[in-house]
């Protein structure tokens, strides 16, 4: 027993737990060294003194598990002590046990803070986690996840209750995914819809894993759920916009050609109709784009009403529509085209108190499996041109002899080539204007053919022909060279040009070096020259567009994506293109002041531009009301007939003394 007593005394002496014995008034009669250390008074000096006085917060009567905060030995230091007080046999003495739990308490507080931070992060990120104990069939859900489910924190929700909330169409998929995961022990993922409240369907993306015991038997499943409703709805909207013509709501070129390609790939036969409104440009010029837009929508509705299910109507762009007729021979398709032509001719167009009627020219081309959709479209296009050449308002079925018409287009290339050689190409300048002040910030340079020959050809007539050959490479170099020479002759730093780059030129590996070397040798500040590439060209030639943008940005030149948003095809690629600006496609600006969805789309483009730190220019600004609406949305720069029509380059420049013309474009210029 003596040995045991010695051991006990040794343990009490060297233990890190403080022990002390007091009378019923708290006066210490015995204390081990650890207690003295914890209360900050040596044990021998503490004897005879009141323990509650030495350690504020210490209980004066029996109590267990009391936690108090005590001052440490260093200034500002604190310690957490756990105190237990029990009565010794006899009832006239109290035994105190004091433990330093500071490190444990700090870890507990840190864990609590981490848990709170995780909970907050889950709420902000619309994410939660769950754990399913397979043996007890109990599911634990994080409070953040329960909140996303529309339930109160701490709600008991078993697996059956969870499945009941899921869209019925997705339940079997979830159960299959979980069953497969339990069978093979692999990680799993699935997405599902859930009804949260009344008529509020949310989308969730789930990831999880299976936890097995030593025998490989699944015992638990753990996972996370992410509320991706906003992302999913945005994706659906962008997908719809990428395949839908914003003016008419019809499938656009991408959607229609994909459907044609699908028929060809599956061995289908049928015919393609190409319809083009006759003299539609006159409607826009004389009646305005608002009337033209109304006509487009009216025509789309009339055509759609006269087609059967399974016959796909789409708008290819501008005033051109197309119809895919599966299973129709060319002559049968021509009859359908004739009915559509008559329907268009019967549509009255009322504007400004006057009534006019429109006609449509149509080309018909049959297709069979083995053909490419491009060839089918080209054949229908040749037939359409034949209808136009024959006097318009008629239907023409494709014939191989229509290739002769292509020769006429070759003559356009000959005129361009001679114009390039003889100096018959000219540049016009269209002002880019600050909407708030009307100040001209720069000019977009536009190409014109001035060879004195008939028929007169505009850019829409000769540029497509140029882009079908390498001639466009020479033309683009001529334009950039002319622009740089003009900047040299007029060194005013406020004179800035934006020049278009064709899709074919993007593929010219030497083009960037040609322009940038010419610019460097001229001494012109790089910031005075801007490049514009269309969204379609950039997406089609993404690597080439990225390479050009990198080279241009490295020298300090500007480079913008033109016609941005035309098909939303460039959104996914935008982060890979090191551009400096966007030019909003005119289709979105045209009706921005008439309460359409255009304002929403322009706001979205602006938000994207701000996120990528890009400048923004609105095209097709033709009315004061558009300026007002664009300014409200945050667009500060625009161009269009209201702000200034294109004029010969020389007319916007003073004599070569380095100054811009003093005249600033106004609304009057837009009507001249």
Automatic annotation (TrEMBL):
Pfam families: EAL, GGDEF, PAS_3, PAS_4. It comes from the Bacteria. PROSITE patterns: EAL (PS50883), GGDEF (PS50887), PAC (PS50113), PAS (PS50112). Residues 650-672 are annotated as: Disordered. Residues 409-660 form the EAL domain. CDD domains: EAL, GGDEF, PAS. InterPro entries: Biofilm_reg_signaling, EAL_dom, EAL_sf, GGDEF_dom, Nucleotide_cyclase, PAS, PAS-assoc_C, PAS-like_dom_sf. Residues 21-51 form the PAS domain. Residues 188-240 form the PAC domain. Residues 268-400 form the GGDEF domain. NCBIfam families: GGDEF. This is Diguanylate cyclase (GGDEF)-like protein. It comes from Kutzneria buriramensis. The lineage of its organism: Bacteria, Bacillati, Actinomycetota, Actinomycetes, Pseudonocardiales.
